[in-house]
């Protein structure tokens, strides 16, 4: 009998029976709490927004501390994600907090691909967790979970509408992370403008099909407050680490020439609502939603790409061994096919190379014959020219000899005439 059939029968035949006395398994929640507290918790926040919207300041205000970090500039060539992890302790509860900030987001002239590094980063964290989960020897209880649990999307307080960059980015992220939109530096616009701006943002998100995180209302203990807070989204927040004395208390506030804005005054901003919903009420739900919804979607898509399914075409449970064998045979078949294609391609390229070499050899022979013939013609011309010069030299020598002979004969004739004249003169006298 198959294991699934056994499990089905066990589930159908489950009966409720009373206990005759105290057993003790009612302490399981306490055991779970103690174990969780001893192991500690992790929470990862992604802050998405343009440079200068106060992302770092808000994080410092939310967790009532000063996180180390260098201020970002507007000269980044592209979007970079900067991740920092901190160990926090409150009472006896430890929290490993990771804050990921998008450095340079929205600073480029061409913002078309600004969302891609963010999507790739989120997928990389899912992939790392999946690889750890698929190991033979898993250590998930000690594995540092780097999956993003909450994305605080910072919206510039323009008072008009969402930018196209914001809509595109949130649309690309809504299936991968829990998005909580917030209006940053909300003290930059008036209350009436802020109310209209919130309505406009909500309308644009709905009309563009952007799914933001909704605080759960299925738990009766938090249903009322979460339902109320869902109506206040997006939260209009202000961040400040500066403490000012207001009345008899020191409070976080921002001092302006026209007055003081108190961060924790709900009449001034929604910071308290954000802190309540993000940290004090729904932090565990954000972690659960990340694992059960976003990660499961990524995991399912990845496993389906690898050929794994829950059921076969006949709606019968799929065997992991059969799936592995099928994928292995498919992979070997594709490998053999690629090997054959590569072999044929190699043979074809060898033939093409041989043809090219033969053609080059033929061209070299033809060039050699042309040069050889040219050399012979030049040699013949030089020999003819040499013969002509030799003939000219011989003719010149002959003319020279004849001239010298004539000159000597002329000299002899002139000398005999002189002697004859001298003799005649002597006879005269």
Description:
The structure is a single chain. The protein has 429 residues and is α/β, with parallel strands linked by helices. It has 10 helices and 9 strands. The chain has helices at 3-12, 28-39, 55-62, 116-133, 164-173, 191-207, 220-230, 271-281, 283-305, 320-428, and strands spanning 41-48, 80-90, 93-103, 150-155, 179-183, 235-236, 243-246, 249-256, 259-262. The strands form 2 sheets. The chain has a 6-stranded mixed β-sheet, sandwiched between helices. α8 (271-281) crosses α9. The chain is elongated. The model has no long low-confidence stretch (mean pLDDT 88).
Largest sheet: 6 strands, mixed
Could you estimate the helical fraction of the residues in percent? 40-55%
Helix vs. strand class:
alpha/beta
**Biggest sheet strand line-up:** 2-3-1-4-5-6
Q: What spatial form do the alpha-carbon principal axes imply? A: elongated
Helix/strand order, N-terminal first: HHEHEEHEHEHHEEEEHHH
Taken as a percent bin, the fraction of beta residues is 5-15%
Subcellular location: Cell projection; Cytoplasm, Cytoskeleton
Protein name: Septin
Pfam families: Septin
Keywords: Cell projection, Coiled coil, Cytoplasm, Cytoskeleton, GTP-binding, Nucleotide-binding
